[in-house]
Write a structure and sequence with these properties.
Order of helices and strands: EHEEEEHEEEHEHHEEHEHEHEHEHHH
Number of domains: 3
Radius of gyration: 23 Å
Number of strands: 15
Low-confidence stretches: 127-133
Mean pLDDT: 85
Largest sheet: 7 strands, mixed
Strand content: 15-25%
Number of helices: 12
Helix content: 25-40%
Length: about 350
């Protein structure tokens, strides 16, 4: 496992990206001091005004905890520059009066008499591959390849190994890995093996991780028909508990009420359809009588295939990686994610 860029390189690229984006909207910037991830700039307007700015640079903005400013920055134009800023975090930055540049193509500068909110050309550093057009993670092969690398961040994997894990065609995996490497999300090393570049690969995967959930209420007899023990619905055949409740089992600092629904990954579409049919059959079942849960089909086959048991009779849990992906959607959950390091032997990749 390797992190992609040094703080110095991030700072250098951020300055270049901000200068190009500012020029697009009729401004210019001048860096006059600051090192690494905390940079000081002047923003120059066409009218000749000079606005002092404090710039924070990160690779991928994953939570607001990354946005830290010294006390003397409160009177400055504050700007975050990142390769990626997810939509929910954009909204949080806006509410806090903090400007931002998502290098994929949007600039927002607010404060000190300045208001800019505009699309700008995507920034590609000089060292990057020219002519990229394909999304870095797309389709089942992309999801599976990224997940497999993150499941084994310190053990480089080859095409055949990932294809075997995901039960997919090696040619599809090979194309997906080449795309990840071209997007600087994975690194190709000797003998055609790849290792992830973190946390960029995790957060890029989080952006496209499927989150469709079906809410169901199932009674004990119906659970039995699905292959679940009616006296302990947690002991499933191919069902794996993920999301919030599984993350808590792995030590995530979340506080859940007793009625907070468990989320299960089902191994096949047929299993999900059967669960939906059984839940809908007969009169409505009140949650007090049945078991309220959310279900989702395993999108890549690896969630069910890498399930973990903390004890022989314990709930089958999703790997912490998939729990973390489930937590990456909401800002409250991302705060917990920022403070959570899973137990050994699992490796944190976010």
């Amino acid at each position: 496992m390797r992190h992609r860029r040094s703080p110095h390189q991030l700072g250098s690229e951020a300055g270049d990206a901000l200068a190009r984006a500012a020029q697009t909207v009729g401004l210019s910037v001048r860096r006059h001091k600051g090192v690494d991830r905390f940079l000081d700039f002047d923003v120059l307007t066409p009218e000749g005004a000079v606005i002092a700015a404090k710039v924070k640079t990160v690779a991928v903005l994953s939570h607001m905890h990354q946005v830290g400013w010294a006390d003397d920055a409160t009177d400055l134009l504050r700007v975050v520059v990142a390769d990626q800023i997810p939509v929910p975090l954009r909204q949080e930055l806006n509410a806090a009066g903090i400007g931002w540049l998502d290098r994929r193509g949007h600039l927002r500068l607010v404060g000190r008499g300045l208001f800019v909110d505009a699309d700008v050309p995507a920034y590609e550093p000089p060292s990057s591959m020219v002519g990229r057009s394909q999304a870095p993670i797309s389709g089942r092969a992309g999801l599976a390849s990224a997940s497999a690398l993150l499941l084994h961040p310190e053990e480089p994997l080859g095409v055949s190994e990932i294809a075997r894990l995901a039960n997919m065609n090696p040619s599809s995996i090979s194309r997906a890995l080449a795309t990840l490497a071209g997007a600087d999300l994975a690194e190709r090393i000797e003998r055609g093996r790849y290792r992830p570049l973190v946390p960029e690969l995790f957060w890029t995967l989080a952006d496209v991780w499927p989150r469709e959930r079906e809410s169901l209420v199932l009674t004990a007899p119906k659970l039995s028909q699905l292959g679940l023990d009616p006296f302990d619905e947690r002991r499933s055949l191919g069902w794996v508990m993920g999301s919030h409740r599984a993350a808590v089992e792995w030590g995530a600092p979340l506080v859940l009420t007793e009625d907070f629904p468990a989320t299960y990954y089902l191994p096949t579409v047929d299993a999900a359809q059967t669960a939906q049919v059984l839940a809908a059959a007969g009169p409505p079942v009140p949650p007090a009588v049945g078991t309220f849960m959310k279900v989702a089909v395993d999108p890549i086959g690896l969630v069910s295939g890498t399930q973990q048991r903390r004890a022989a009779d314990a709930v089958p849990l999703a790997h912490p990686l998939f729990c973390a992906l489930d937590l990456s959607a909401a800002s409250r959950d991302r705060e917990a994610l920022a403070e959570w390091t899973p137990p050994e032997p699992f490796v944190r990749v976010w």
